[in-house]
Design brief:
The chain is mainly alpha-helical. The chain has one domain. 76% of the residues lie in helices and 0% in strands. The protein has 20 helices and no strands. It comes from Pseudooceanicola pacificus.
Length: 434
């Protein structure tokens, strides 16, 4: 059997293994091992191939960016800075019908600039924003939908763990991807805000009730917004000006977040230990996935599958736009059954060479990929952000169906923004001067 056929069979095997419930990293590494064995006919060579790929995949300085940004995000989340951000912004939007929903979106946008993890945003604002919106008269399905929908900003507005993962998979610049994420992130936040404002005027019954009376936003001093803005400015400003590399910015941001949390007496030794353990768990999980993806990518290259698919795509005349739309649709559909990282690990090694052959900018392709992947966080049956919101509010009687219903308009808005980013690359790469 020729290597190309073995490569195609390995793709089918990986799909069967993943949908059969095997962990993605194990499926990628295991099938890749069998694929190299079948191509070479030597098990020892296949084992050495896998071992070398696993070692090389994470033995780089740039991988330090993963635990550092995770640590910073968890420290910020644990310190309650997200709660303060929402309270201050909500107070400024008092009297605006649907204003608390818009305040949630804006708070998530600010929070995203210092966390990079959508799940953290969903958990924090489920506890903070939903009770305030419901108390102010907002329909509960709208309240939970706003939180689930706007939580995706955590993976789009830099620093973003998915953008870091994309950079690792494609050996591209983390800094460029972070810069490219600003435009689409702000556009999505603006689209959410416009939708909620229009909905407040068209359907005032969804927002009727006493607004701005005695909520947490009335008791939070405005100066507590300064640590959030200062931390975001320090990290992103350092990256954009070239003063820090992304890895150095992660270290500075993590240190600053911990200093703020301890200095404001928001966390103690017990909370610090919990943050450290959670950082280790998340980092280990991400690195395990990266190892599996590296083995998978090398096996594909060895089999010749990426080159064959690239030649077919170019010869078909599909063009850059057709390819991006087809790829985004496939990724969004995969989001209904797989988590975000798994989708990227499976699709990017195959699709990235095609995008380069078609002349698509790396940063543009990265943002299209991340937005398409993030749509899956809001769609059934495996909408991860939806599950986090529902789990956080289960004791209040919130159901999965209620959250999915509330999040559906936000998923459609994301699809519209994705279309705009595909059609107008300047939204993503304009700040890069390309």
């Amino acid at each position: 059997m020729d290597p190309l056929t073995i490569g195609y069979l390995s793709l089918a095997g990986i799909g069967i293994a993943i949908y059969g419930g095997i962990h993605v990293a194990i499926a990628l590494a295991g099938v890749s091992l069998l694929g190299v064995w079948a191509i070479t006919g030597k098990i020892k060579l296949a084992l050495n191939f896998v071992a070398l790929a696993a070692t090389d995949s994470i033995a780089e300085y740039t991988f330090g960016v993963v635990p550092l940004f995770v640590l910073m995000g968890l420290a910020v989340s644990e310190s309650g800075l997200g709660r303060d951000t929402f309270a201050i912004i909500a107070r400024g939007m008092r009297g605006w019908r649907g204003g608390l929903g818009v305040a949630t979106v804006l708070s998530n946008a600010v929070f995203a600039a210092i966390t990079g993890i959508s799940i953290a945003s969903a958990a924090v604002f489920s506890k903070v924003a939903v009770p305030e919106m419901v108390r102010a008269g907002t329909a509960r399905s709208i309240a939970v939908g706003v939180v689930a929908g706007s939580s995706v900003l955590g993976m789009l507005i830099p620093p973003s763990l998915l953008l870091i993962l994309f950079a690792i998979l494609t050996d591209s610049s983390v800094g460029d991807l972070f810069v490219a994420g600003v435009g689409p992130g702000l556009l999505l936040a603006l689209a959410y805000g416009v939708y909620l404002t229009v909905l407040g005027r068209v359907r005032p019954d969804l927002f009727d009730g006493p607004r701005g009376t005695g909520g947490a936003e009335d008791r939070t001093p405005g100066y507590l917004m300064l640590p959030v803005l200062g931390l975001a400015g320090l990290v992103l400003g350092g990256i954009y000006t070239g003063f820090f590399t992304p890895t150095e910015a992660g270290a500075v941001g993590a240190a600053a977040a911990l200093i703020l949390a301890f200095g404001m007496r928001r966390i103690g030794g017990r909370e610090a230990w919990r943050i450290t353990v959670q950082t280790g768990h998340i980092t280990a999980a991400v690195c395990f996935l990266i190892v599996g993806a590296s083995i998978y990518g090398r096996m594909l290259g060895f089999s010749g599958v990426p080159g064959a698919i690239t030649q077919w795509a170019v010869a078909s005349g599909i063009g850059p736009l057709g390819f991006l739309f087809a790829f985004a649709l496939i990724v969004a559909l995969m989001g209904t059954v797989l988590d975000s990282s798994s989708i990227m690990l499976v699709t990017v090694p195959l699709a990235f060479p095609i995008s380069q052959e078609l002349g698509i900018d790396v940063a543009h392709f990265g943002l299209v990929t991340v937005i398409a992947v993030e749509i899956g966080l809001l769609t059934p049956p495996l909408g991860l952000s939806v599950f986090v919101v529902q789990a956080t509010l289960r004791d209040q009687g919130v159901t999965l169906g209620e959250v999915f219903k509330g999040a559906a308009p936000f998923a459609l808005i994301m699809a519209a923004v994705l279309t705009a980013v595909i059609l107008f690359p300047v939204i993503a790469i304009g700040l890069l001067g390309r």
